[in-house]
Amino acid sequence: MGKGDFLGEFEQMVLLAVLHQDRTGYGMSIRQEIEARTGRDPSIGSVYATLDRLEEKGLVHSHQGASLPERGGRARRHFALTPEGAAALRAVRRMMDRMWAGADMRGAGGEV
Amino acid sequence: MGKGDFLGEFEQMVLLAVLHQDRTGYGMSIRQEIEARTGRDPSIGSVYATLDRLEEKGLVHSHQGASLPERGGRARRHFALTPEGAAALRAVRRMMDRMWAGADMRGAGGEV
DNA sequence: CGTCATATCTTCTAGTTTGTAGAAACTCGG
DNA sequence: CCGAGTTTCTACAAACTAGAAGATATGACG
Q1: CA A106 distance to own-chain centroid
Q2: Does the beta carbon of B99 lie under 8 angstroms from any beta carbon of chain A?
Q3: Confidence of residue B65 (pLDDT cuts 50, 70, 90)
Q4: Nearest C-alpha of chain B: how many angstroms from A68?
Q5: Containing domain of residue A50, as a range?
Q6: CA nearest to B20 within chain A
Q7: Interface size between A and B, measured as CB pairs under 8 A
Q8: CB A60 within 8 A of CB A18
């Protein structure tokens, strides 16, 4: 019924960013990973909101980082992919691959 | 501000289905294309809602089909990709490729 | 002919989930 | 206490969803 059976667009990006920084990534660094790769500039709030949703769904797991930041601040919350998260990523990838299969962009949107 | 600068997940799928059936596709057939390729079973209402949104954004163009259906019913509304739609598709593809680049799923979600 | 039953297709309505941004709160070192 | 680095909260906009309602053509049947 719900739409919650699939990954939204931004959820995919965040999940991939978590994968790229497995176990070491936290809010800020994940935001940066996305920015560096895509040029998008999501607000930090968006990232956390999505991260929280992904954790609720069991696709991601978080734990408090040891507090040894040298330079002050609140303890980091590190994220890691769960097996379910990895599976969701593979599933969405498979779906999109099928949708793209045979796509011919030459002349798309041509003569009206 | 809005999120509307990018393509949502389902918007991507619909846009690709339109591409695959360029100029001949209409609500029902587009729904089927998605189902056939991905196994998803979106309601027809979802498809039209998304198609309308895409047309508003100028990514898709629609026109009434000639009424020669042999077997009664309302006239079909055919869809085609616009140049902007093709560009949006290429853009989202590029973004996702960058997010996936170097993704290593081996052992992802491993030892907790 | 007329109008009705039926098949196709589209539009409308109403609600949930995702995505967004910015402000507020927390926590550490100095 | 103050400033820097982080996370959480609040409030709203956009995307997604399903199903019911509306529209429009054809063929049947009197």
Answers
A1: 31
A2: yes
A3: confident
A4: 22
A5: 9-66+75-94
A6: A103
A7: 105
A8: yes
Q: Could you state, in chain order, the average pLDDT of each consecutive group of 10 residues for chain A (112 residues)?
A: 81 98 94 97 97 97 77 86 97 97 80 50
pLDDT digit string (tens) for A41-64? 999 999 999 999 999 999 999 998
Q: Within a domain: residue A1?
A: no
The CATH number for B43's domain is 1.10.10.10
Q: Residue at minimal CA–C1' distance from C18?
A: A8
A34 and B99: CB-CB below 8 Å? yes
Query: Is there a domain that residue A105 lies in?
Result: no
Window A36-75, strand D contacts by Cβ < 7 Å:
44-45, 48-49, 52, 69, 71-75
Q: Which residues of A touch B50 (CB under 8 A)?
A: none
Band (pLDDT 50/70/90 cuts) for residue B66 is confident
Q: Could you write out the three-class secondary structure of B69-103?
A: CCCCCCCCEEEEECHHHHHHHHHHHHHHHHHHCCC
Using the structure block, give the residue that is written with the tokens 């797991």.
Answer: A61
Could you give the number of structural domains in chain A?
Answer: 1
Inspect the interface and report whether the beta carbons of A109 and B17 lie closer than 8 Å.
Answer: no
Residue B45 within a domain: yes
Nearest CB neighbour to B109, from listed A83, A95, A99: A83
Do residues A85 and A62 make contact, with C-beta atoms less than 8 angstroms apart? no
Residue A102 lies in a domain: no
The string of pLDDT tens digits covering residues B30-53 is 999 999 999 999 999 999 999 999
* The pLDDT value given to residue B110: 61
Phi, psi for residue A100 in degrees, rounded to 5: -85, -20
